[in-house]
Design a protein that fits this description.
Blueprint (H helix, E strand, L loop, with lengths): L1 E4 L5 H14 L11 H11 L5 E5 L5 E9 L9 E8 L8 H16 L3 E7 L3 H9 L3 E12 L2 E11 L15 H9 L2
Parallel strand pairs: 4-5
Antiparallel strand pairs: 1-2, 2-3, 3-4, 5-7, 6-7
Length: 187
Amino acid sequence: MQIRLMTNDDAPDIANVLNIAIGGSIAHFGTVPTSCDEVLEDWYNSSETYPWLVARTDDGKFIGFAKGSAWKTRKAYRWTVESGIYLAAESQGMGAGKKLYTKLFEILTLQGYRIVLAGVSLPNDASVGLHESLGMSIAGDIDPAGFKLGEWIPVRLYQKQLGDTNKGSVPGNIRAVTSVWEELQNE
């Protein structure tokens, strides 16, 4: 398995995996299919601040993707990031999610983020297991959080500290994704 930063060529696969989640599951709260252009626009607008990682098999088959995004827009939240991950159905349960998230969290930490949050729609034992296996703790449940597929869906919020949040610690600037990625490639 290869994990790398997203490129333009990944947009169709990402849109496809998102549309499967949007159309037939509670894993994504979207209700309208997304397009490659929308995926690319989201990526273009955030890719220097938030990493978008893609996993592929050695022969190039799409496994899934993970990304960071803004948690809230107010300035005091700038060191808190939300994570998201979606895997192709045939790639679930094989450890790919843990590898993708581990790399994502490594990059986020090196960028200077201090807290990562994730929302998991319930029930979803696989996603709960993934987040807890990475040391994320339950921050709380929102029950109900949204209405999809004819029912009210609860969401469990998870969090993990990536850096020092002790009283008196002053966070620095958030580093660019490409800078951190190049640093990791040169190790």
